[in-house]
Amino acid sequence: MVRYVFSATASAVVLPAVEVIGIGWFSTISAAFLSISAILVMFTSLRGESWRNTFDEKHDKRQLHRDEKAKANEERRHSREVV
Fold first, then answer.
1. What is the DSSP letter of 68?
2. Is there a contact between 14 and 26 (Cβ–Cβ < 8 Å)?
3. CB under 8 Å to 26, separation ≥6 — which residues?
4. 18, 26 in Cβ contact below 8 A?
5. Residue 82 has pLDDT above 70, yes or no
6. Does residue 80 surpass a pLDDT of 80?
7. Smallest Cα–Cα separation from 6: which of 37, 47, 41, 28?
8. pLDDT one-digit tens code per residue, 29-58
9. Angle at CA 39, nearest 5°, toward 34 and 43?
10. Which of 30-43 are b and which e, b meaning 16 or more Cβ less than 10 Å from the residue's Cβ?
């Protein structure tokens, strides 16, 4: 959906922008935007696995902490019932 929003916006902007700044500058700006986008995609593909692993480790630690808290709460409830 985001891609379609950008496509629609670009289609609406292209003709007025070309009329104001000219085809040369518009092409230069478009090429710069595409180059930056390509670099970011490449960076994401190179670093994505380590980002995913870091996120998974943090998520696992949080889940373990939640499980420990739930177990402690359950033990407290059980000890209150027994008494």
1. H
2. yes
3. 14, 17, 18
4. yes
5. no
6. no
7. 37
8. 999 999 999 999 999 999 999 999 998 898
9. 145
10. eeeeeeeeeeeeee
